[in-house]
């Protein structure tokens, strides 16, 4: 559908521009905001992960400190330095040794219990002693000699060795999965190996450091340098390799703080922090829809704000469009009125800009046009008046001759009264048709003149026609141009008597219809064809040489193009002429 309204066009153009620009800016802003928020969320989660790593480092450091406190205990070194034979021969010494070492181990456990960690501590000596906080007979030198982890401890030569989490067959409850730290106990003077310290720590102590943040589908895994899982929410994965079990899928994006990858049709944000000292890594996996939840909320608020901006902008644009185009529309509406003939209209000038200048110029143009037309109409009217005055001054010689001949005939027949009446009517008619084309007379006076004329014609043509006049009293005093009915009545008399030998009948009727005055003059003559109507309409051979066309033009000059006369006729029936005048 073609839009014609300039207001609507301007409004749609500006609103479309605002929407397109808003969408472009909005799309760019949302995308940029998403990236910024995603990076910030990545940083924030990375900081949380660093905090977890620090807590785990503190845990491991505390366990190491427990080990240091134990292996550096002089009395423990002395006990472990006793020869096996001497221990067997001195039962009391063995009892005292057992009591001291177990007290030492329990003291360390309880000292660090406030940090929510209770490792199981074991001391296995070369001289046959075996001590433990849980069970002193859980490990013996013989039972551990062939273990891989023991050989790693031996190779470390007194340094602490961190052994990845594994499932302890003898463990129960939270100690089913444990990780281990161990070191050799040596005589610091002789560097002799006296035994080994084993510290078994529940994996739960690691899990407790991060379980508060693993919600909404998040996962955290602690892995060693080979990728073996040391701790995680799913205990079934402990001991398995992270890279083989979980690190599959496509990496979609890698940033400084995080990476994005897809696994099993789900996008994840992956963050990694390392415990360099212990060669462990902490991996956090966050479903991307969780990360994007605040982004989604920001986007929704942004889109809502954008929608409100567009709505408000549309209203403002519409108001501006109306303000800009209203004067143009007013000019257009005024032009339409001018086209319909109303040259008195004006555009209201309410602006001081170029549009105001246009309004003023338009008003000046219409005024000039109105003045010019009025001047032309006045000149034309004066021309018609002069022409009519000239014509009215020339009485048709045939009419004069015939009238005077009729008077002479009546005198010769000694019909003096009839002759006198005819002369009276004739003189009265002459006074009526003396030049007065510029005058307006009442319809009643115009009818009186018609009666005088028809009476005169009846004297000439006795019993040839009758005239019936029916004029509403309401319109009798209406002012009309002088001598507008006579030419039509003259034609009606002539055509009603022409042809068949019958009495002519002329009807003159005046009434109001649709706020207009209508005057009908009809006869019962033989009627006319279209060509005859045109001939009569332009005939100037009336008594005062004023034809129908002159009457029609006089009416229009006085009242406008919508008024005048209309002729209709049917052959064999008669002719009707209708005058249309304003009320």
Automatic annotation (TrEMBL):
> Which leading EC class covers this enzyme?
transferase
UniProt-annotated location(s): Cell membrane
Against CDD domains, the record matches this protein to:
HAMP
One MF term from GO for this chain? Answer: ATP binding
One GO cellular component term noted in the UniProt record for this chain? plasma membrane
Q: What is its EC number?
A: 2.7.13.3
Show where the Histidine kinase domain sits: 484-583
Renumbered to this chain, the signal peptide range is: none
Enumerate the UniProt keywords alphabetically. Answer: ATP-binding, Cell membrane, Kinase, Membrane, Nucleotide-binding, Phosphoprotein, Transferase, Transmembrane, Transmembrane helix, Two-component regulatory system
| HAMP domain span | 322-374
Q: Where are the transmembrane segments?
A: 6-28, 302-324
- Membrane topology summary: Multi-pass membrane protein
PANTHER family named in the record:
SENSOR HISTIDINE KINASE YPDA (PTHR34220), SENSOR PROTEIN KINASE HPTS (PTHR34220:SF11)
This protein is called what?
Answer: histidine kinase
């Amino acid at each position: 559908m073609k839009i014609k309204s300039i207001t609507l066009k301007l409004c749609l153009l500006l609103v479309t521009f605002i929407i397109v620009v808003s969408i472009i800016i909005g799309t760019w802003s949302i995308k940029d905001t998403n990236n910024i928020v995603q990076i910030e969320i990545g940083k924030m989660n990375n900081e949380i992960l660093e905090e977890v790593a620090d807590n785990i480092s503190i845990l491991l450091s505390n366990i190491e400190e427990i080990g240091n406190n134990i292996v550096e205990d002089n009395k423990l070194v002395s006990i472990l330095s006793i020869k096996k034979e001497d221990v067997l021969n001195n039962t009391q010494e063995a009892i005292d040794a057992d009591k001291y070492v177990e007290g030492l181990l329990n003291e360390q456990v309880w000292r660090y219990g406030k940090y929510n960690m209770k490792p199981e501590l074991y001391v296995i000596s070369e001289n046959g002693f075996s001590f433990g906080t849980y069970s002193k007979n859980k490990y013996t030198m013989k039972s551990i000699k062939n273990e891989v982890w023991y050989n790693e401890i031996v190779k470390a030569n007194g340094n602490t060795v961190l052994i990845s989490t594994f499932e302890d067959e003898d463990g129960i409850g939270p100690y089913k999965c444990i990780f281990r730290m161990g070191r050799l106990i040596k005589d610091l003077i002789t560097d002799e190996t006296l035994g080994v310290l084993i510290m078994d720590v529940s994996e739960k102590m690691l899990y407790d450091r991060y379980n508060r943040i693993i919600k909404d589908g998040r996962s955290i895994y602690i892995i060693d340098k080979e990728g073996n899982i040391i701790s995680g929410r799913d205990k079934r994965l402990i001991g398995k390799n992270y890279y083989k079990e979980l690190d599959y899928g496509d990496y979609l994006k890698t940033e400084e703080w995080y990476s994005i990858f897809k696994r099993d049709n789900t996008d994840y944000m992956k963050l990694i922090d390392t415990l360099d000292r212990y060669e462990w890594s902490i991996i956090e996996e966050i479903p991307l829809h969780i990360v994007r939840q605040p982004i989604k909320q920001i986007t929704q608020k942004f889109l809502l704000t954008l929608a409100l901006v567009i709505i408000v902008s549309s209203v403002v644009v519409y108001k501006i469009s109306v303000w800009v185009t209203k004067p143009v529309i007013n000019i257009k509406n005024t032009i339409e009125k001018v086209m319909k003939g109303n040259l008195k209209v004006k555009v209201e000038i309410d602006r001081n800009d170029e549009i105001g200048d246009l309004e003023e110029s338009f008003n000046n143009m219409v005024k000039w046009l109105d003045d010019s037309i009025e001047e032309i109409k006045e000149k034309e009217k004066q021309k018609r008046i002069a022409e009519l005055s000239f014509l009215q001054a020339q009485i048709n010689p045939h009419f004069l001759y015939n009238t005077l001949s009729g008077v002479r005939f009546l005198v010769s027949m000694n019909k003096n009264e009839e002759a006198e009446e005819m002369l009276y009517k004739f003189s009265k008619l002459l006074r009526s048709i003396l030049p007065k084309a510029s005058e307006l007379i009442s319809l009643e006076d115009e009818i009186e003149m018609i009666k005088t004329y028809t009476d005169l014609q009846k004297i000439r043509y006795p019993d040839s026609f009758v005239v019936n006049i029916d004029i509403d009293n309401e319109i009798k005093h209406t002012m009309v141009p002088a001598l507008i009915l006579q030419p039509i009545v003259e034609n009606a008399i002539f055509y009603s008597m022409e042809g068949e030998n019958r009495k002519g009948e002329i009807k003159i009727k005046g009434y109001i219809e649709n706020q207009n005055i209508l005057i009908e003059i009809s006869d019962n003559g033989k009627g006319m064809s279209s060509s005859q109507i045109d001939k009569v309409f332009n005939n100037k051979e009336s008594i005062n040489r004023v034809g129908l066309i002159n009457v029609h033009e006089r009416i229009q000059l006085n009242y406008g193009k919508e008024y005048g006369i209309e002729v209709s006729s049917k052959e064999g029936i008669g002719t009707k002429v209708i005058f249309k005048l304003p009320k």
